[in-house]
Amino acid sequence: MSSETTPEKLPALQQAYLDAMLAGSGRAADRVVEGALDAQLTPQRIYLDLFQPTAYAIGRLWQRNQVSVAQEHLATAIIERQMGELHPLFRPQRERGRTIVIGCVPDEWHRVGARMVADFFEAAGWTVHYLGAAVPTRDLVAITRETGADLVGVSAQMLFNLPRVDELVRALDAAGLAGIPVIAGGMPFSEQPGLAAALNVRGSGADAAAALAVAEQVLAGPVTAHPAAPGLAAVALERLRERLVHEATARCLAAGDSGEALIRAGFGYTTKMLLAALTAGAPELLDGQVAWGNERQPHDGVTPAQMLARLTHYAAALHTLMPGPEGATAAAYADRLVALQRQAMAARLGP
Ligand code: B12
């Protein structure tokens, strides 16, 4: 709760906004935004205190199977429409004389956060090139060069997309643009502030206001050198990716599991998660994923016991296919998944 002018009104506005979204009523949501403006909430606070927490709440409800995908899509569409309507209020008072290119990494479809960040920069007088969801890396590099950007901002909400952030920094370096700093944001960065350094980016922020603050800090700091080389374990796992998915799936099927396509897809996802955690050198990133899986996956027809069996086969396949020190590092991450799944199941059963 951060508006100085109307703190007492905020909880009621937040509740009314969530209710409007759950009812799927764009008109009711519009009335809440009008009420917020009447109560002197700035458009920035409307973004951060109404739109963002409501989007998070809708996400939690979807995770628990309490709202449908359609309700989530509707809510997101309403938020994006209202952002467009509020956009004129983000016109700057004066120019900052700086340019930012901002968008989401490839395969990242969560674009609302990046758009909020874009509007905050706009209000602060930056020239903003906002590119939306899933921007191919080479195109992000190209527009960075063409616009003479001072800063690149990227959004990666899904853990499995973290390696794409690292790739972007390397691509800018390879294009001779290493001097242009990159900042990043999205759920993994909000949860782990140390992630930025591990992925060779210069800073991260948990919301649009923090994004602006970190941008100013970065511009005031020294120009950094080339990105650190990727970890060997991540490189080795990337190379093995298809064989690993194949081998782990075969082990599950041999043990009597069924639904080959889903098992295969699940292992593809697991491998992406491992790659992300390995790239960042942060095994603890996997913890939230296991917790998430235990809450969501039963609604998608996968029981915790099935998850445990599958992860155990996956870890065994990894141990077999990746001997040597790189394999040991990657296998330790996979073993962590198995241990976490056991813990989650034990916690569910209780003492
Ligand atoms: C809407 C939504 C979608 C929409 C997005 C549409 C759109 N137009 O953007 C769609 C349907 C595409 C979608 C798809 C999926 N989603 Co989704 N989605 C959401 C939801 C409900 C809201 C996202 C949102 O708008 N947030 C509001 C914005 C304002 O917040 P934000 O993104 O965090 O941004 C702020 C900060 O992070 C920061 N920031 C962001 N970018 C940047 C950049 C820089 C440079 C800086 C400094 C800061 C910064 O500032 C922003 C503004 O303050 C979230 C819930 C959540 N917790 O976010 C789930 C959520 C992210 N989705 C989730 C999942 C699982 C998925 C899917 C895998 C579902 C599926 N089975 O297909 C796919 C993955 C798609 C992909 N490859 O990207 C999970 C992720 C769980 C996890 N632990 O990984 C979540 C958390 C829901 C949940 N609780 O389970 N999703």
Describe the structure.
The chain is mostly helical. It folds into 3 domains: 7-88, Methionine synthase domain (Methyltransferase, Methionine Synthase (B12-binding Domains), Chain A, domain 1, Orthogonal Bundle); 91-220, Cobalamin-binding domain (Rossmann fold); 232-349, Orthogonal Bundle (Globin-like). 64% of the residues lie in helices and 6% in strands. The chain is built from 15 helices and 5 strands. The protein has helices at 10-22, 26-38, 43-63, 69-86, 112-123, 137-147, 162-174, 187-191, 195-198, 208-220, 232-254, 260-280, 285-296, 304-321, 324-349; strands spanning 99-104, 127-130, 151-155, 182-185, 203-204. A 5-stranded parallel sheet has the order 2-1-3-4-5, with helices on both faces. Strand 3, helix 7 (162-174) and strand 4 form a beta-alpha-beta unit. The longest helix is centred in the C-terminal third of the chain and has 26 residues, at 324-349. The model has no long low-confidence stretch (mean pLDDT 92). Cobalamin (B12) binds next to helix 3, helix 4, helix 5, strand 3 and strand 4. The site of cobalamin (B12) has 44 residues, from helix 3, helix 4, helix 5, strand 3 and strand 4.
pLDDT average, as an integer? 92
Strand content: 5-15%
Number of domains: 3
Order of helices and strands: HHHHEHEHEHEHHEHHHHHH
CATH class of the largest domain: Alpha Beta
User: Which strands sit side by side, in order, in the main sheet?
Assistant: 2-1-3-4-5
Number of strands: 5
Question: Low-confidence parts lasting 5 or more residues at pLDDT below 50?
Answer: none
Task: Indicate the overall shape.
Answer: globular
Secondary-structure content class = mainly alpha
Fraction of residues in H or I helices: 55-70%
Return the CATH architecture of the largest domain.
3-Layer(aba) Sandwich
Question: Under CATH, the topology of the largest domain is which?
Answer: Rossmann fold
Named once each, the bound ligands are: cobalamin
The value of Rg in angstroms is: 22 Å
Distance between the termini: 37 Å
Number of helices: 15
Biggest sheet details: 5 strands, parallel
